Amino acid sequence: MTDRYSAAHSWADLRNRVVAGDWFHAPSPGRLERMDGGLVEIGADGRIVAVCHAGSEGHRAMARAAARAGRLVTLDGLLIPGLVDLHVHAPQYPQLGKGLDLPLEVWLQRYTFPLEARYADRLFARHVYRRLVSDLLAGGTTTALYFASRHVEATCELADACIAARQRALVGRVIMDNPGQCPDFYRDASVAEGLAATRAVAAHIESHPANDGWVRPVVTPRFLPSCTDDMLRALGDLAGECGCHVQTHCAESDWARDYGQARFGHSDIETLDRFGLLTRHTVLAHGNFITGADMDLMARRGAAVAHCPLSNAWFANAVFPLRAALEKGVRVGLGTDIAGGPSASMMGAMRMTVAASRMLRDGVDPDRPAAERGRPGSDVDMITAFHLATAGGGDALDLPVGRFAPGQHFDVLRIDPDAPLGTMRLWGDESDEDLLATALYTASRANMTHVWTGGLQTGQA
């Protein structure tokens, strides 16, 4: 991480600059690329124009030309793509860490639905959402897929908070109209009401004068139990009509899996497909109980999984078969699942991804023989988890984020190993893999000193 060039400008606005630094990305599972001293040119629109590796033809000429033009900036530390969180329940942020001893269906009724009902108060929503977006950006989450509440005005506040802070986001008002599973005080009165509210949020997002592509709408049936057949059918038609993204929960727990099988006579994946909700733009949270046949169908449709390893430990009753899904060609990214996951950290999600895969590989019941205890070949390494949290999440959303390549948005997290109060310790003999793994396993918020989206440092006016 040699400081080869002098910085000619501040770091706040890197548009129209050529940036020298120590870059790490994982363009595919298990494949790490490091560009120590590499040059990344950012255009006026905040997208990467060119990437030049140190030692490659033209590197020295590019650096000298940029320096003469006063466009060369050097960033020290480790530079990684911004993190992509594929599953966030934005209104649940005040619930983080509460009630985690309860079964999912009880937790929702006792904590979640009463809290989400409070978002009828637009000022409460504004306060929570501005803090949430700011906190996530500070932790390196530059793109998020959000479930909001069922309130139109509050959901618009979430979109506004993302646009103001320059966080890429897909924002969806949750849709829930099944009286058998939703409380009287918190559900849509009719299919027409649910559709009208969803269209109203989409119209607000698409007409926002400052949006410029930062936020997109997403059709959001909460999960199969919360919606009537008529609602699911109408939402499938809406998704087909607008071509927008779809997000929902899928086969999260024994209860959720068994409910869907009993009601529809099919797996969650098959049911979503029958309603037109399984598309190239669909992201399904959890998927712990999807079968091989489900994976094949998902791969054919192009649907993705938001793997939430931390919340799965609390509520799922199982470990998602991540390696099997990847081998089947299913697109996968990571999610924190605030607040089912009691941490807003995508660093934590990566760490738990590796740990959960090891537990699935080895098994956890000490009374069973070692040979019968787990599912061999299920583990993944940290480089794969890093890919899922960056490029994998971008691929799941069909967004150009997560890699250092021409055409990608310059969404970047700087990790400073020497930051005051930081928790990283380097000893000078680390390989590329060990250096990145040390950062991802041991860096704390203090080490995450700068975040850029679209070439602009977040928190800067």
From TrEMBL:
Residue ranges occupied by any Amidohydrolase-related domain in the UniProt entry: 79-455
Gene Ontology MF terms in the entry: guanine deaminase activity; zinc ion binding
GO biological process: guanine metabolic process
Gene3D superfamilies: Metal-dependent hydrolases, Urease, subunit C, domain 1
InterPro entries with a match to the protein in the record: Amidohydro-rel, Metal-dep_hydrolase_composite, Metal_Hydrolase, Metallo-dep_hydrolases
GO CC, alphabetical: cytosol
Keywords: Hydrolase, Metal-binding, Zinc
SUPFAM superfamilies documented for this protein: Composite domain of metallo-dependent hydrolases, Metallo-dependent hydrolases
Cofactors that this protein relies on: Zn(2+)
A family per Pfam: Amidohydro_1
Protein name in UniProt: Amidohydrolase family protein
Gene source species: Gluconacetobacter aggeris
